Amino acid sequence: MEIVxxxxxxxxxxxxPEEHRPRxxxxxxxxxxxxxxxxxEGEGKVDVTIDGxxxxxxxxxxxxxxxxxxxxxxxxxxxxxxxxxxxKR
Length: 89
Fold this sequence. Notes:
Elements: E1 2-5, E2 8-10, H1 21-26, E3 45-51, E4 54-60, E5 73-74, E6 77-78, H2 80-87
Parallel strand pairs: 1-3
Antiparallel strand pairs: 1-2, 3-4, 5-6
């Protein structure tokens, strides 16, 4: 996880200065009760801008996707296209 606060990068939540942590954690969910807001856990990059009373958080996450395909044959004939049109997949 890379956390950037006002242009200063930190590798983890514990590196963020104490004066910023209460403002960041009060506006975010901590579903596992670890003391670290969910947005600052896991993989990816989080950009934070603190300007007076305003806090702006932008998170980019890595998402893994998988694809699969199915071939349908009847009597040795490929009917995949017909099957997909029939069920509009």
